[in-house]
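Internal QA ticket QA-208
Title: Verify multi-chain structure generation after dependency bump
Assignee: T.L.

Test input:
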Amino acid sequence: MLTDFINMFQYDFIVRAFIAGILISVCAALLGTNLILRRQSMIGDGLSHVAFGATVIALSLGFTPLYFAIPTVLIASFLILRISNNKHINGDAAIAILSTSALAIGAVVNALSPGSNIDINSYLFGSILAINQTDIIIIAIVAIASILLYFTFYRQIFAITIDERFAKSVGIKTDLYNAILAAICSVIIVLGMHMMGALLISSLIIFPCISARLMSKSFKSIVIFSVAISVITFIFGLTASYSFNLPSGASIVCANLICFIICWVYNKLR
Amino acid sequence: MPLINVKNITVTYGKHKVIDNLSFSLEEGDFLCIVGPNGSGKSTLLKAILGEAKIHSGNIILDKELKRNFIGYLPQHNNIPEDFPATVNEIVYTGLLNQTHFVSSKYKKRADDALKTLGISSLKNDSYSNLSGGQRQKVLLARALCATSKLLILDEASNNLDYNSKSSFYALLKKINKTENLTIIMVTHDLDHKNLLGNKILSLDHDSPFFGSTDEYVRRIHAH
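Actual output:
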């Protein structure tokens, strides 16, 4: 296993997948704490479907997927933010409509475009071959910027996560922070979707935080555990994906599931 | 100059006037209780003072030294989910974010002082989800105290407490009102804790509007 692990780094695409994956895992874990604790985990799921639809449409029409998908998902994220703030709309249902529509439109456009040979399966369940040279530069820039942003505004993000009304009363611009978080979330989902798959990217946001929560009594420890769990399960998942020729997203989710069960048992026995 | 001067404000919600031409003013160190039936505009008035509700006409003038972000606010419903994983310190520190971006040790001292004033220093590293209702209320009060040294606004903050916790909470408010010379505005439903209430009362009851001293209000109620 260990020699396998070392040997796999002789391939450039594996090195790229590792760098990109670790950066995305860290960002997803940070965002996850915010979304989960505010009970908005559906947003990540909704956006991933929109990202899938946008990517397939871009490929069918011959655009570069990232340049088309990122703006589309950004717009969708602001729409979802609006919807979830509006008391007169049933937020859950609205997000479901938006995301399934995007998925459906993507599939229809793909079927209609002549000679399309897009491997839908790899977009749904993830592929480690997916990350190319340009992708990794964009991922590195966005991820590092997001991480810096998160820790610069750590206290403010905590304040709006725990109690938005109070945060507003001490002058924190809650709408601005919500918009920034939604924007980061969209970009991370688009960037991570290729590797994780549209159906599974949201688990990268949700699972680490849920597992970490079983071990934590403070916000700080939830953030630290989430990031650690996210990175470790990614490394295990991707190694398994390479060794046994599994879809990368699916094996990372399985690693997360095992980790969750361990945390859950630990929590019960404690 | 008064700390807060409310001049002829009207706040509407749709076509309905929630607050109609209301005026009153408070001096530093006042402890005002706002009473009135549901829907009489108590929470709306607090929102107007906090700058969160749109005032249709009239205005609210705050003392130059009192900035909007420096009002200590304790919301009506406990906005924090009971199982939220956060320590007391983490929560109380958010009250400092109107003064500092990163909470350095200089500011943490202020949070320590607030916890000490409320007698909950020993809880500072405990998880909020493990605290009792009364303890949680004190944590949120400590957070509000970190945000202000002038004005505290409480919106039925003691609603979910039992009788004893309520009494001790009111006694604590009265104490910090005196010792810290902190102005307090509190919306409350229960007037059974009369001796623990503040020096002024504002009644938003449409049938018997009132603003004046608590003694006078009590005398009037007895006269009826």
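Spot checks passed. Chain B has one domain: 4-223.
Status: verified.
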